[in-house]
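Q: Here's a chain of 118 amino acids. Please give me its 3D structure as tokens.
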Amino acid sequence: QVRLQESGPGLVKPSQTLSLSCAVSGGSITTTNYAWGWIRQPPGKGLEYLGVITYMGDTYLNPSLRSRTSIARDNADNTVSLQMNNLKPEDTAVYYCAAAILGSYAYWGQGTQVTVTS
């Protein structure tokens, strides 16, 4: 079974850059038909999909956040990363890493809280 574990700073100041990592176990991030996504949930709101990176390394980002967001992978470490620049208080959320198989999310990490505050 695929397992995902997010890690990163819990507190970030406004205008700083957020870097999150997702360690994947139980499967390779290059497995055919898999994609690895980042999703967040602000307090009291629904899920917001930030973007994905496919097993081939192609990335697809939420258009509303594309200018501030990037997703990358490290095949050797079997990790997927999220970077978001110029953070704002409204970026405060629980950030999840998830694995999609043929477009449907099948596995989720437990999530990591990110709070943007000065």
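Q: Can you summarize the key feature?
A: The two ends are 39 Å apart (CA to CA).
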